[in-house]
């Protein structure tokens, strides 16, 4: 199990926060997601077959800029 913190930019509403959380938690291999709008961070626990690059791409494709 791996844990990562991904810094993002562009999240403005709780609805966006909820949608991103739902999208990521439904990915195969993702066991926990916490989207923190105040700190602009996504904390995520995951294992194979997903990896950090996959997660960052999904967040980017959802319309958010990756800052780290």
From TrEMBL:
Domain HMA: 2-67
InterPro entries: HMA_dom (IPR006121), HMA_dom_sf (IPR036163)
Transmembrane segments: none
GO molecular function annotations of the record: metal ion binding
NCBIfam families: Cu_chaper_CsoZ (NF047536)
Name assigned to this protein: HMA domain-containing protein
Organism expressing this protein natively: Staphylococcus carnosus
